[in-house]
Write a structure and sequence with these properties.
Arc Repressor Mutant, subunit A; 45% helix; alpha+beta; disordered N terminus; 3-stranded mixed β-sheet
């Protein structure tokens, strides 16, 4: 059908009415036209004008598209649905502009309709995933650790007053050239009367540290490496030194569970410990100088590999931002136990990560750095660095903790990330195609898929065998 010829689509209108079980009177009422006019359209006496066609598209968007999938009317229906979607905050599109777009820019209009269809599918996937999660909980409320995780995410994982206070405290503690570990012990003892005991009381062997407020003593697991001991002491000093600040932030937060404020106070003290052992300005400058070489940074600041990676993901001070990184920690079962992203990559809120992501391989190969160029379904490429870590224990009876950490950035920051040097960044097929998680991944050609995407119907062909026994559209 020519884009400018009259649209004699009476048969399509009759088919639409039949599918919906509507009479002419009700159909005419919904379209805002007379019954006689509708009868003339259906009998082929009069064409479907642009105004009536748009009314059909607005009134029956999905049904009209199914009845007339290949003509201008279908395109106008899709464009009207996309332009009028109430879930998208945008100015309304005038009817004449929609009609003109369909006639003059059909390729652009079809692309708009396709993008809107993809958006609707993604919303259906998220809704289905959310329903699955809610069904697994006893009530429609997030768990305490989820509330705190989301609080840090919404704060951009950068807490300005604590970060600046910790940086100032570091400068004060090390002004006389004293080693930070010694300075931490001295401040705990001289200001707060807290002694440090490098042994654990009987029955508490599985604890990393225990603070006795009455005895004013902190016991630390003697098997811990120096960087872990320093972090625990920094954590305890932060609880005492920044008590009022932490309390103010916690009280200002809005949580539904009673346990979340306690978890947030621990998280804020941990944040302060990281900022105290790796002060912002000095750490950011050294990170830029070394091109974010984790081993060089941890050597300079006497911190662990994980602590250093996590700190790099928090360098978002306004006016002095660092490279936007994502950071996560993954256990041997694939569960993401820590997560933060200052990039466009957002981790799945529930469940594990994509099995094609290099962090899973790193978890099985400790003490070896692996790198990967990965591409998400939206076409964005990321450089990932991952390393498997083992935290030993002081007894054969206690299994060591095994996991992997990953740090990465978008490809635009490759020059600032030393781990990009050994990767081929330009090839069309040089990136590993990854998703966020199987339940929300739209890739139909992944042989590692564990589950079909939520909200998508699957197709099963018993006569054809593939690595995954179904497909979807």
């Amino acid at each position: 059908m020519s884009s400018r010829s009259p649209a004699f689509l009476g048969h399509s209108i009759r088919e639409l009415r039949g599918r919906l079980g509507l009479g002419q009177q009700e159909t005419a009422r919904r379209l805002g036209i007379s019954i006689s006019y509708l009868s003339q359209i259906e009998s082929g006496v009069r064409p479907l004008t642009a105004a009536v066609l748009l009314a059909v598209a607005k009134t029956f968007p999905r049904e009209w598209s199914a009845v007339s999938p290949n003509d201008e009317g279908s395109l106008l229906a899709g464009a009207a649905e996309a332009a009028g979607d109430p879930t998208i905050a945008a100015d309304p599109v005038p009817e004449d502009l929609l009609r003109r777009a369909v006639r003059q820019q059909p390729l652009v209009t079809r692309r708009l309709v396709a993008v809107h269809a993809a958006y609707r599918r993604s919303q259906s996937q998220l809704a289905a995933l959310n329903d699955t999660v809610l069904e697994a909980t006893e009530e429609d409320a997030p768990l305490p650790w989820q509330e705190v995780r989301d609080w840090f995410h919404n704060a951009g994982n950068y807490i300005d007053p604590i970060d600046r206070a910790a940086e100032a405290l570091h400068a004060e503690l090390t002004a006389d050239g004293r080693h930070l570990g010694q300075a931490l012990e001295r401040r705990l003892r001289d200001v707060y009367g807290v002694g440090v005991e490098r042994s654990m009381p009987a029955g508490a062997e599985k604890s990393l540290s225990i603070f006795d407020a009455l005895e004013k003593q902190i016991a630390v697991d003697p098997s811990l490496p120096p960087e872990s001991t320093n972090f625990l002491l920094a954590h305890q000093l932060a609880r005492l030194q920044f008590w009022q600040m932490i309390q103010d932030i916690t009280q200002a937060a809005s949580f539904r569970s009673s346990e979340a404020p306690k978890l947030l106070s621990i998280g804020l003290a941990n944040y302060a410990a990281g900022a105290l052992t790796m002060p912002y300005t000095a750490f950011r400058a050294e990170a830029r100088r070394t091109r974010h070489d984790i081993d060089q940074l941890r050597s300079s600041f006497n911190t662990s590999f994980e602590q250093t990676c996590h700190r790099l993901s928090t360098l978002q001070r306004p006016g002095a931002e660092g490279v936007p990184f994502f950071f996560c920690r993954v256990d041997m079962a694939g569960n993401i136990t820590k997560r933060h992203s200052a990039t466009r990559l957002q981790f799945a809120r529930f469940g594990g990560a994509c099995p094609l992501w290099v962090v899973h391989e790193a978890a099985a190969i400790p003490d070896r750095i692996l790198v990967q160029l990965a591409e998400t379904p939206d076409g964005v490429r990321y450089i990932s660095m991952a390393k498997g870590l083992v935290k030993p224990t002081a007894s054969y009876l206690r299994s060591p903790r095994r996991y992997a950490v990953a740090l990465g950035c978008e490809i635009d920051h490759a020059e600032s990330f030393i781990y990009a040097d050994q990767l081929s960044l330009k090839g069309a097929s040089s990136a590993t195609p990854i998703g966020i998680a199987c339940r929300v991944c739209p890739r139909n050609d992944c042989e590692q898929r564990a589950f079909p995407p939520a909200g998508r119907p699957i197709t099963v062909d018993p006569d054809r065998r593939f690595a995954v026994p179904y497909s979807f559209t």
